[in-house]
Design goal:
This protein is of the alpha/beta class. The chain contains 41 helices and 28 strands. The N and C termini lie far apart (91 Å).
């Protein structure tokens, strides 16, 4: 402690006597008293002398006059604890507590330094090391912890290691004192996020818990508060041991903790002291960990660690703290002309004691990061008598403060307008810290565009504001806020007659708005149904209950689940209108809207802002943001950066200032890349131009409507299809797609699908795929969904169609073939044969009858145990088992696609990486904790697991940021299968589609044409005029067919088309025969 100043100064007193009355002792003899005690051998004499000193100190009312004496003589008192006479210790301890309690608060750090030396194993000063010194040093640390926890917090980095090592000391007294002190000091770390975990931290540091146990629990700690050196100090020993541990999973979780904590390090100097311990271990993990997932996590945490240091990792730790000489030198810079350095060094100069002491206190203030100017001023006035404090105060104070300052650019809106919110806050979601001590300034009549990559927290921030979860943000009764979500959050609103719960999404539109205003946002006075119906009618809804607007695309009397995404948003805007909100928050407002409705929402929002409201919105529509925004709020390194630009040009100017944000204008995959799996070969299909899926003259009418939703649709899909389905809201786009994939059955017309086709479909409301799996990780979700090489989601919707039920068309019976003596099925003629009719129960397998060029299915019959028969596709369809046949075709197609793709955790992780989901998120993050963009990626990856030939995406751009959108665009471009998208995003449609299917009032018309790309046939490549190479590399000589002229091709096409027409009429051609002929026609057309 006092090694920083001349030891001779200890004999100089700031008072004349420590005793009252005529006592013979003079205060300058206190140092001599302790020196005498050091030489004494008689314990009773020592105790007598110490007790007399103690009594006189206790009887002094104003002990502050002895402040310097307590400080400068603590070292002498401390070294008496090394004496052999143990029963002296109690008197020494009582006297030491008086010293500690009556020292100046900011002198305590020096006393702590002395006590740290006291518990060390070294003997650098030549004094005899005794266990008593360790024991009572620990006890005094416990005393200081109770009196000055903030000083213990600032010294934790130096305290944790020596005290935790003494918890296993062989001396019981030392062990007991160390255990007590350790439990107290770790509670002073100052980080509330760690509070629930302190018991397990204590158990580990005191040797009572194994590393596997604590690392498991600590990895789940959610850090919201700034992470500083004290918190890092108690976690560092755990991290260090975990990184050295032999199990990769323990190392991985240690890396997760490092990553989580370092993201919250606001000031680089907080982490510099421990980086020299952790960084080499992390680098070793990156080089040596065998598990790819753990190695990736190590790389990620190493990057976060280095980033948190902000290029200061090589900084000398000593430079992060001031010592007493630093403070003295700052004085010298200002007072050299007024007082000489020699005068300051003179040991008999009365002001030397106080000056040095004042410098020590200022040094401790600086190192304790206490820059309350009033305290600094008080210390200047008290201890710096030889110069006007005001002349040097600013210099010393500023030079100390700059060491710990972190400069942050804080935006302040100085333009005219009423403040809605101005403050700082932090935000976390699950185990992820999204915002850390960020500033935000909101005013009326503003349009804020909220930007940032997926998983940065855009939606979470808006939801937290709406749910009153932002600390310091005005409550709803002061500031009315509403969040118009892309996906409406389910909420239980009651029970039906049978006791089953009723959810808000089960309500009709009118009831939903009433419930939202009155129950969620607690409007007073409450809105009435009549008010809601009026607003909904004004905004464009029909109302069949009142006989109005039956021809409109959405009906206020119909269920919320029947609305498209665009109409759900309009429904929520009705609630905002009725509430007269101050802040309206929107999540992708143009995502589900056509051109006409985008124009409508723009005007609606402009009117809203003119009326005094402010808007915060996320959007990936750059033209929408550029036109509407007055300000940009951007997520940057867990901070919100606000940018003000010229109205109508804000986003463009923002990108000019931050060129790395250019992705807001371009669709590219240089930041993120998606890779769709190769769909592979389809049996019997030799060209990408062959139709795999088609609709012929298809009509569909919903039961509740008077007229069809779609009329006479004709279309074909091949592996070269690149089609965008576009049209206004309510035109029938999603209905047409549901008919195409088999989710709906046409009222009339025909939908045909190749038996071996694999198809992927991502619904408009993509999250419906994940609703039952929010407590699973993405890997668990895919493993569960495709267990048994079957798609449970596909099965679920087809269960509703009763696939296993057979609608009998013609009856068949079983008989033994007289030639082959094998069982066969024959059509029933007459009552006797009909009595023996059989019904399929299930199909077990499928095989190809190459001789007959047809497919046969192994059928198990109802009521006939263990008897199976191979039956042709045509007969089964004639029996009414079409859906059963289609189901088996799908299973066979799926099995073919997954032959070289095992359903394992490792395989699924690798697949998810192809869609931007890293292994940490894939295997260790619950789906419920993922952002909207990440959930879309999971749904997209899951839909592609079976290597589909055709992919159908309904509004895939919702929730994807610009990088994700660029990655999806490039993946579609490179995909070797067909793609159909439904989108209102014109930029995306133009980037990926070669043809457009335009839906207008239920009718479809085509524009453009998908170009068939040349491809190499699998297992067959040309190397010469009459030579081909098979899959094994064998050269085979073939007779090359004569090339047909254009005229000959046209003639042959006409003949084949007539063959199809005649075959359909006479029912002599199977579906496979028709596909093969169409394949040949397509080749001729190419």
């Amino acid at each position: 402690m006092s090694s920083e100043v001349n030891t001779g100064l200890k004999k100089v007193s700031s008072s004349d006597s420590i005793f009252k009355g005529d006592n013979s002792y003079n205060i300058k003899e206190m140092f001599t008293i302790f020196e005498k005690c050091k030489e004494m051998k008689n314990a009773n004499e020592i105790i007598k002398l110490l007790d007399e000193l103690k009594t006189n100190l206790e009887n002094t009312e104003d002990k502050s006059i002895y402040e310097l004496d307590f400080f400068y003589n603590f070292d002498s008192l401390f070294f008496l604890f090394s004496k052999k006479e143990k029963h002296v210790m109690s008197s020494l301890y009582d006297l030491a507590k008086i010293f500690i309690k009556n020292c100046h608060e900011w002198a305590i750090p020096n006393i702590i330094d002395t006590l740290i030396y006291g518990i060390s194993q070294s003997n650098k000063r030549g004094d005899e090391v005794r266990n008593t010194r360790k024991e009572y040093s620990l006890k005094m640390i416990s005393v200081i912890t109770g009196l000055y926890p903030h000083h213990i917090k600032n010294s934790l980095f130096d305290l944790v290691s020596p005290i935790s090592s003494l918890t296993s000391d062989l001396t019981n007294e030392v062990k007991k004192a160390a255990t007590k002190a350790l439990e107290k000091i770790i509670a002073c770390n100052g980080n509330n996020d760690l509070t629930p975990f302190l018991p397990i931290v204590f158990n580990f540091l005191s040797g009572k818990s194994k590393i596997e146990n604590i690392i498991e629990e600590l990895a789940g700690c959610v850090f919201v508060q700034d992470v500083e050196l004290p918190a890092l100090s108690i976690i560092e020993p755990i991290i260090t041991e975990a990184l050295k541990f032999r199990k990769n999973e323990v190392q991985r979780k240690a890396c997760v903790i490092i990553d989580n904590m370092c993201k919250l390090v606001e000031k680089p100097q907080e982490i510099v002291p421990i980086i020299t311990k952790i960084k080499p271990l992390l680098e070793k993990c990156v080089d040596t960990i065998s598990n790819p997932e753990a190695r990736n996590m190590a790389e990620k945490s190493l990057q976060t660690l280095v980033k948190s240091c902000k290029q200061q990792e090589t900084m000398d730790v000593k430079l992060l703290k001031k010592d007493t000489n630093d403070i003295i030198n700052l004085f010298k810079e200002k007072i050299e002309g007024e007082i000489t350095v020699d005068e300051l060094k003179h040991p008999l100069n009365e002001m030397v004691n106080e000056f040095n002491y004042g410098c020590i206190l200022l040094k401790n203030l600086s190192n304790g990061k206490n820059f309350e100017l009033e305290i600094w001023q008080q210390l200047f006035e008290k201890y710096v008598h030889f110069v006007e404090a005001s002349e040097v105060l600013e210099h010393v104070y500023n030079q100390c403060k700059v060491t710990f300052e972190v400069k942050e650019e804080i935006f302040e809106d100085t333009e005219e307008g009423k403040d809605l919110y101005k403050g700082a806050f932090s935000l976390a979601y699950g185990a992820l810290t999204l915002l850390n001590n960020t500033h935000l300034h909101l005013k009326r009549n503003r349009f804020y565009g909220l930007l940032g990559p997926n998983n940065c927290g855009k939606t979470t921030l808006m939801r937290a504001i709406a749910n009153e979860q932002i600390e310091g943000f005005p409550k709803r009764d002061e500031l009315k806020t509403i969040f118009v979500e892309h996906e409406i959050q389910e909420r239980e609103v009651g029970e039906d007659k049978e006791g089953y719960p009723i959810f808000n999404i089960d309500l009709c539109g009118t009831e939903w708005v009433v419930d939202c205003c009155n129950e969620v946002y607690k409007m007073e006075p409450k809105v009435t149904r009549e008010q809601v119906e009026k607003v909904m009618e004004d905004i464009g809804f029909g109302n069949s209950s009142k006989g109005t607007g039956k021809d409109r695309a959405a009906d206020a009397s119909m269920g919320v689940t029947t609305y498209s995404g665009g109409w759900k948003m309009k429904m929520q805007l009705c609630a905002a209108t009725l509430m007269n909100t101050d802040i309206l928050m929107l999540d992708e407002p143009t995502g589900h809207l056509d051109v006409k409705n985008i124009a409508w929402i723009k005007q609606w929002l402009k009117d809203y802002i003119s009326g005094g409201g402010s808007v915060i919105t996320t959007s990936h529509d750059s033209s929408f943001l550029d036109e509407m925004c007055s300000h940009i709020i951007d997520f940057q390194d867990r901070k919100l950066k606000i940018f003000r630009g010229q109205d109508g040009n804000v986003l463009k100017q923002f990108v000019e200032k931050y060129p790395e944000k250019q992705g807001y204008f371009e669709l590219k995959n240089d930041v993120m890349k998606f890779t769709f799996p190769n769909p592979g070969y389809i049996e019997g299909v030799k060209s990408k131009g062959v139709p795999l899926l088609s609709m012929t003259d298809v009509y569909y009418k919903y039961p509740i409507r008077d007229t069809p939703t779609v009329f006479g649709i004709n279309l074909k899909c091949t592996r070269s299809t690149r089609s965008a389905v576009i049209g206004p809201n309510g035109a029938g786009k999603s209905t047409a797609i549901k008919l195409l994939i088999g989710e709906l059955e046409p009222t009339s017309g025909e939908v045909k699908k190749h038996p071996s086709l694999r198809m992927a479909y991502v619904a408009q409301h993509a999250f419906q795929h994940l609703e039952k799996h929010i407590k699973e990780t993405p890997v668990q979700y895919i493993l569960d969904r495709f267990a048994g090489n079957d798609d449970k989601e596909n099965v679920d919707f087809k269960k509703n169609r009763k696939i296993d039920e057979v609608t009998v068309v013609n009856k068949y019976f079983l008989r033994t073939n007289p030639d082959t003596m094998l069982p066969e099925v024959k059509k029933c003629f007459g009552e006797d044969e009909e009595k023996k009719a059989v019904t399929p129960e299930k199909i077990l397998a499928r095989k190809e009858n190459k001789k007959e060029k047809t497919k046969e299915y192994e059928v198990k019959w109802k009521g006939l145990d263990n008897q199976t028969t191979w039956v042709t596709r045509e007969i089964l369809i004639d029996m009414g088992a079409l859906l059963m046949v289609q189901r088996q075709d799908e299973k066979e197609a799926i099995a073919a696609g997954l032959m070289d793709k095992p359903l394992t955790s490792t395989g699924v992780e690798k697949h998810l990486q192809n869609f931007g989901i890293d292994p940490e998120q894939a295997s260790h993050t619950l789906i419920g904790s993922l952002s909207g963009g990440q959930k879309v990626k999971v749904v997209l990856a899951a839909s592609m697991w079976q290597n589909p030939h055709i992919v159908i995406l309904d509004e895939p751009t919702n929730y994807l940021d610009r990088d994700g959108l660029g990655a999806l665009t490039k993946a579609i471009e490179e995909f070797d299968g067909g793609v159909i998208i439904i989108t209102h995003n014109r930029e995306f449609a133009n980037a990926v589609a070669q043809e457009k299917w335009i839906m207008e009032a239920g009718h479809l018309r085509r524009e453009g044409e998908s170009v068939v790309k040349e491809e190499k046939q699998e297992g067959n490549s040309d190397i010469g005029d009459n030579t081909i190479v098979d899959a094994q590399g064998n050269e085979i000589k073939v007779q090359k067919q004569k090339d047909l002229s254009d005229k000959e091709k046209k003639q042959k096409i006409k003949i084949l088309q007539k063959k199809i027409k005649a075959g359909k009429k006479s029912k002599t051609l199977t579906d496979q025969d028709i596909w093969d002929i169409e394949d040949e026609i397509a080749k001729l057309k190419e």
